[in-house]
Every structure is written in C-alpha cells, then in structure tokens.
Amino acid sequence: MAAAIEPSVGERKSLEDLEAKALEIIKAHGDEGIYQHELWKTLGLDSREGSRLALRLLKKGLITREPTVHKGRRTYKLFIAKRAKQAIKIEIRIGSIIEVPCFSCKNLERCHNGGFFDPTTCPLLSNWLTAKIARLKQAMSM
User: Fold this and answer.
1) Tell me: the pLDDT tens digits for 86-135?
2) Alpha helices in 29-118, H assignment, sequence order
C-alpha cells in the first residue's frame, strides 16, 4: 500500500499562494463568475492541476461551482462563495480550557465514560467544576 506523500513546507506555501491568486481572479469576475478552464489558463496550469485547485477551493468553502456548457463542452463556472465574500474573524480564548484539570491528569488517555477512570465520577473534575460555578455565580451577583 502506498503512503500518501505530504507536501513540503515550500510546496504548501506555493499551493496557498496559488489558491490566493485563484481567489483574486474569481473575485475579480464578480457575479458573472469565470469558467474553470479560463482560470487554469490564466494561472498557467494544465487542466488536471486546475481541476484540483478548484476542488480544493470548493472543499474549503471558498468558491461554488456550477456545471455549464461552454462552446459545446461541459465545464464549470466558478464563483466566490457568499460567506467567503466577508472576512470571518473568530476570536478564540483558551484561558479557561487550559484550567481544566483533565489536560494535566496522568490518566487522561485511560479516562472514558463507564471506565475505571470516568469523568462523571472524577473528583478532580467535579471540584474544578464546582469552584468554576461558584466563581461565575459570585461574578453575576456583583
């Protein structure tokens, strides 16, 4: 069985650059969209690479593809996905997650529901949750 070969850091960077260029081109065509073959020709790719690029962007939810016929040939028209038009900024705070006692517990890998080490009966987790709830109640009453 052949193992999947991971792209090197340099290859990943060039893939990201290529995807960014493709998105710019698709975005520039606006609501009209662009035929898939026009995109790969503009980027200097062959049809195989161009199709793979379009599929990667589609999987990431950055574009939509609509099947169409152009000059008697079946192809796809590419459009920027609606949600890709707006930059989505998600702020993640891990401070409260770091406090969870499970992540520093020596039995983490053996802990599961119904097992010898069970989160539903763990005194460390129960004490932490009780203290966390008490702090939240105290903060809400102020």
Assistant:
1) 555 667 778 778 889 998 899 999 999 998 999 999 999 999 999 999 99
2) 36-42, 47-59, 95-99
| Token reading at 49 | 């690479």
For the chain, the domains span 10-84, 95-141
Task: In whole angstroms, give the CA distance from residue 26 to residue 22.
Answer: 6
Class of domain 10-84: mainly alpha
Residue 34 CA to residue 117 CA, distance in Å, equals 56
Paired tokens of 95: 């401070």
How far is the C-alpha of 60 from the C-alpha of 62, rounded, in Å? 5
Q: Is the pLDDT confidence value at 27 over 60?
A: yes
